[in-house]
Amino acid sequence: MAVSRNGTFTVYGLAATDEPCIRYVGMTRQTLASRTNRHRSGARAGEPSPKADWVRSVLSRGADILAVALQRNAEPDAEDYWINALARKGADLLNARSGGESGFCLSDGARARMAEAQSVLQRLPERIERNRASNRTTFAKPEVKSRMSEMRTAIMARPEVRAKLTAAAHARWTRPGERESLSEACRGRKLAGDHPFLRVQGESNPRARLSEENVRSIRARCANRERHAVVAADFGVSRSLIGAIHRRELWPNVD
Asked: Using the 8-state DSSP alphabet, how is residue 207 labeled?
């Protein structure tokens, strides 16, 4: 990225080589050539904005865009001044924001265009995956986990939150048949239908460390009076797990 030699701001206007009018006002510390290249590359990459749509239309008809310096060594609020000044003279600017003496604010049309563009971006598969990866990285940080834990503790300490949770639990337990179905789930019985407390058993469980063939082999070796510690070492599990499989407390559906 090329930066101007003195590092100051330059207010510039974008125009098409085949049109004698400024369509966009910006401010940058980069050189005008570098900033113009960024406008071109953003439009070619599919940037969703009125300015990018205009740049694409200019390039598609064989013309090009150029940046004209309006003010060098500009103050931070100079961009607002030039947008207002050109707008008062009737310039058809593509800036998403409209100025005013009371400050700089988004126009209603610009807000709608920005919301629509943001909605389109958020639905892109690559943006969804990038957001998920960013969230996984963020929430894996120890300091973030600590803050989240503190927030949960503070929320759970609120009387109104505890009252809502108590009311929800009471409503759930008073539903007809709820207690009976929960008892059946705790005893490991198969429930009819899709019950939220029903555990996925056997190889269908994504956390299963053994297969049905492993279970059959374990039971056969235990039947031959092999030591549970030896069998457990061979399969990389605990002795208590081998004992539970031998007694059919686990994997009871495997013969």
From this structure: T
Residue 15 · residue 4 · CB < 8 Å:
no
Which pair of tokens denotes residue 145? 């986990």
Nearest Cα to Cα of residue 12 among 3, 1, 31, 20: 31
Single pTM value for the model: 0.39
Instruction: For residues 17 and 65, give the distance between their C-alpha atoms in angstroms, rounded to a whole number.
Output: 6
**pLDDT tens, position by position, 20-42:** 789 999 999 889 999 999 999 99
Altogether, the residues listed in the chain come to a count of 255
Q: How many CB atoms lie within 10 A of CB 229?
A: 11
Which residues, at least 6 apart from 83, have a Cβ–Cβ distance to it below 8 Å?
25, 93, 95, 97, 98, 99
Give me the residue label for tokens 């740049």: 55
Instruction: Decide: 98 and 87 in contact? Cβ < 8 Å.
Output: yes
> Which residue bears the tokens 């559906």?
253
Instruction: Tell which residue, 114, 82, 63, 109, has the closest CA to residue 9.
Output: 82
Cβ contact 25:15 at 8 Å: no
